[in-house]
Amino acid sequence: MDKEGKMMICCLLLAAISPVFSGEWKATVVEHLDVLVSSCVVIPCSFTHPKENLPASKLRKIWHRSKERDQRIYHEDSTLILENFRGRTRLVEERSASNCTLEITEIKDHDNGPFCFRIELARTPGDTSTIDKFSFVEDCVEFTMFNEPPKPTLIHPKTAIQDRPYIVTCSVTHTCPSHVPKLTWSRATTETDVIEVHKQTHAGHWEAESILTFIPEEKDDHSELTCTSQFYGQKRSYSTLTLYVKRKENYNHIIIPSVVGIGITVIFGVFCSFMVKKYKTRISELQSQDGSMWNRLSRMSRRIRSDGPGPSRSDQRRSVWSRFSRRPKGDMSSSHMPNNDNSKSCADQKFAKARFPSPKSQPKSCNYKEDLDDGDDYVNTEDLNVYGNI
Prior knowledge:
Blueprint: H1 3-21, E1 26-29, E2 32-36, E3 40-43, E4 45-48, E5 59-65, E6 68-74, E7 89-91, E8 102-105, E9 115-122, E10 130-146, E11 153-155, E12 160-161, E13 166-174, E14 182-185, E15 194-202, E16 205-214, E17 224-230, E18 236-242, E19 245-246, H2 252-288, H3 293-307, H4 313-324, H5 368-373
Parallel strand pairs: 2-10, 12-19
Antiparallel strand pairs: 1-4, 3-8, 5-6, 5-9, 7-8, 9-10, 11-13, 13-16, 14-17, 15-16, 17-18
């Protein structure tokens, strides 16, 4: 056999035995999870081993702390488990031979890991001694602990329309699909109003959804709607939204005020027409009556406007004085005039600037005696002392 033939045979042998030495002992474990204290967590895990056809009864699945294989947090023999983990761990879907998913309940704040998976192969179902065993210490999981649960996320339209379906979605993430958080609404609902959905978002993380559909009414405007999530371990969180309900699109807000305004205008116009017609006839009757009160009032009004204001008190006093100061028709004898050389003639007297007259300020007439003789009636001089001595 030549050299090339030998090389070909070696390559074929290596290809045949390579699965035995490479990639058969393999585990897929989520490396990091967010865990709620007092709740639960599910660690997704799967593995492969050299003897794929072995029944599940010959596979021994173990979880332990990091590289310390004797500190087991799960074992089929519960007496071999650490005391603080007893009764709190179990495998999920044990019927699958390649499944190693682990559930931990009643999480403590010190259960942060890392935790690793180990597989042991028994000789026979009756012989539990193992000949093949492998710990996947490079594929372990660690926890980030949270004392408060995450708040639900609400997705909804900004505005609801009256008498039209309104949809609100409430969702919350978690890491325990074996105990899904329960979502409830503050609004009374029926089975047909709510749709629940549970799905895996990515490895080790799930999302619970509650989809609420209802018909908002006018009374729901500015009301609050709350979604509450209750986790395993009795911890709760909630989110609230305020509903803004828009009235159904119509023209009532325009038509009704317009009709009311037109109606008021028509009623007012009819009333005014009735009053004008009623009192117009009455006014005509009053005006047609001779000597009626209406005519007398009209004449009085015209008289007042034409006469104007009456004489003042000073004008009345001046008129009385002028009765006694009228110039006589005949000439008086010079013998009756007082003989006063110092007196001046009437023509030479200068009068003051016109002003309201008074008995003291009015200049005496030069023909004072003649004024007294004016008229037919005799005037007593004592009667002249009306405003004082002259």
